[in-house]
Specification:
By secondary structure, the protein is an alpha/beta fold. It is built from eight helices and 25 strands. The strands form six sheets. Strands 1, 2, 3, 4, 5, 6 and 17 form a seven-stranded mixed beta sheet that branches. Strand 9, helix 4 and strand 10 form a beta-alpha-beta unit.
C-alpha cells in the first residue's frame, strides 16, 4: 500500500488550490485523485468570463482560470491520477480507488482533503407532474453539451430556477440562436448574482418571473410545452394564474448539493443547512486529519473564494502532517459560532482561538433579501462588529473577519454570534 502525506479527492478548482498551497507550505508527498479525464473540474465547461478578478486581478474564462492552477501543479511536480474513481475512505484515512491502469488499489493518507465539488438537484427532487419526455436537462448538462460537445439541446427554451448556471445558460442559449422565453423562479428573489441577472437576462430582454414554478410538462416523446403558475408564500401554486408556454426544452437550475457520499460514508458530520461537513477554524471535520474545502463544504458564488478557502485547507493540512505536537492537532475546546436572525449558517461553525491564524475569515449566507441592515458580531453578550450593508441576498456570499488578538482578550468566551440587525 502506497503512503502519501496528503491525498486530495477532486482535481477541480478547490483540489488544485489546496494542492498548490500544501506544497508551498512544505509538504512534498501529495496526490490528487480526479475521476474526469483532465484536471480543472467544472471550470472546463465555463467558457464565459468573470473569473479571477480577486485571485489574479484580471478577468479570465473558466478554462483560463483552471489553467493557471494546473500550470502551478505541473511546475511544483504534484502527482495526480486521472480517470480515477474513489470508492471509499475509511475513518483511519485509507483511500480505496480504482482506474483502468492500476485496477482497485488502496492508499494510506496522513491527511485527506475533501474537494469533490457539488452536483445539480435533479427533476426527481421537484415532483413536477407529467411524463418523462426528451428535452429536460439540468442547466449544467446543457452547458456541457453546448460548450464542450458542440450540441444545441433545443430551439425554444424555458428555464426553471434562477441560479447562476441557469442565468448564464439563458445568455448562452440565446447567443447560440435559441429562443429563451422565460426564466421562472420559485422564490420571491433570484438565487444568482445580481451581475448575472443584468448581463444574462436584462441585456437580452429575457423575462424573469419570481414566485413562479412549472406545474405541468406536456409531451410524451419530446417536450412540447410547459405550464407556469404563480405560487403563494408557502410555495403552493395559486389556481387561475397558469400560463402556457410552447417549448421543446426545459432547463433546470434548481440548486446545487455538495457531493458528500464519501464524506458521510467515512463518518464525517454534515450540516443540515449546507449539506456539507461541519468544520472548525482549520476547515477540519470531526475526523482528525480530514479537511474539506470548496463546494463540497458549502456552495460558493465565486470561484475566487473557493481558491482562497482551499488554500487555507492546504496550509492547515500541511501543518497537521508536519506537526508532532498533539495539542496542535485536532481536539481542544471550540468556541461555537452561532448563526441567528437572518444568517443561515457560518463556515466554520466553531473555532479554537489558540490554534486559529491571526485573521479568521467566517463565510455565511443570509436567508432572504435584506436592505439597509447591519451585520453584527457578538462575543457572548458584547458586540464587537456592527457593519452596515445596503443590500444582502441569498445568492451572494457574505463574510466577516475575526482577529485572534481580539478574541484572546476573552479567555472565557463560549459563543460568537453572527446576526442581522435593523438600521
Amino acid at each position: 500500500m502506497k503512503t502519501y502525506d496528503i491525498v486530495i479527492i477532486g482535481g477541480g478548482p478547490a483540489g488544485l488550490a489546496a494542492a498548490v498551497s500544501a506544497k508551498r507550505s512544505g509538504t512534498d508527498s501529495i496526490l490528487i485523485l480526479e475521476r474526469d479525464k483532465e484536471l480543472g473540474g467544472i471550470l472546463n465547461q465555463c467558457i464565459h468570463n468573470g473569473f479571477g478578478l480577486h485571485t489574479f486581478r484580471e478577468e479570465l474564462t473558466g478554462p483560463e482560470y483552471a489553467g493557471r492552477f494546473i500550470e502551478q501543479v505541473e511546475e511544483l511536480q504534484i502527482e495526480y491520477k486521472l480517470h480515477t474513481m474513489v470508492m471509499d475512505i475509511s475513518s483511519d484515512k485509507i483511500v480505496t480507488a480504482m482506474n483502468s491502469t492500476d485496477g482497485l488499489f488502496e492508499i494510506k493518507a496522513g491527511a485527506v482533503i475533501l474537494a469533490m465539488g457539488c452536483r445539480e438537484r435533479s427533476r426527481g427532487a421537484l415532483n413536477i407532474p407529467g411524463y418523462r419526455p426528451a428535452g429536460i436537462f439540468s442547466a449544467g448538462t446543457a452547458q456541457r453539451l453546448v460548450n464542450m460537445e458542440g450540441c444545441l439541446p433545443g430551439r425554444k427554451v424555458v428555464i426553471l430556477g434562477s441560479g447562476d448556471i441557469g442565468l448564464i445558460m439563458a445568455r448562452r442559449m440565446t447567443l447560440e440562436g435559441a429562443q429563451v422565453q422565460v426564466v421562472a423562479e420559485l422564490m420571491p428573489y433570484s438565487g444568482g448574482l445580481k451581475r448575472n441577472i443584468v448581463q444574462c437576462l436584462d441585456d437580452y430582454a429575457i423575462p424573469l418571473k419570481l414566485s413562479h414554478t412549472v406545474v405541468e410538462i406536456r409531451g410524451k416523446e419530446r417536450v412540447e410545452g410547459i405550464t407556469l403558475a404563480q405560487v403563494d408564500e408557502t410555495g403552493r401554486p395559486i389556481p387561475g394564474t397558469e400560463e402556457e408556454y410552447e417549448c421543446d426544452t426545459l432547463l433546470l437550475s434548481v440548486g446545487l448539493i455538495p457531493e458528500n457520499e464519501l464524506s458521510s460514508g467515512m463518518g464525517v458530520a454534515l450540516s443540515r443547512v449546507t449539506s456539507g461537513p461541519v468544520v472548525n477554524e482549520s476547515l477540519e471535520t470531526n475526523i482528525e486529519g480530514v479537511f474539506a474545502c470548496g463546494n463540497v463544504l458549502h456552495v460558493h458564488d465565486l470561484v475566487d473564494f473557493v481558491s482562497e478557502e482551499a488554500a487555507a485547507a492546504g496550509r492547515n493540512a500541511a501543518r497537521y502532517v508536519q506537526s508532532t505536537d498533539d495539542a496542535s492537532r485536532g481536539g481542544g475546546p471550540l468556541v461555537e459560532i452561532r448563526a441567528v436572525d437572518g444568517v443561515r449558517y457560518t463556515v466554520p461553525s466553531g473555532i479554537n482561538v489558540e490554534r486559529m491564524e491571526d485573521m479568521q475569515t467566517v463565510r455565511f449566507r443570509v436567508g432572504g433579501v435584506y436592505k439597509n441592515c447591519f451585520v453584527s458580531v457578538y462575543l457572548d453578550e458584547e458586540r464587537i462588529q456592527h457593519r452596515k450593508r445596503p443590500v444582502m441576498a441569498p445568492g451572494e456570499m457574505e463574510s466577516i473577519k475575526l482577529k485572534k488578538e481580539e478574541l484572546l482578550k476573552y479567555p472565557d468566551l463560549k459563543v460568537i454570534t453572527v446576526k442581522l440587525e435593523e438600521g
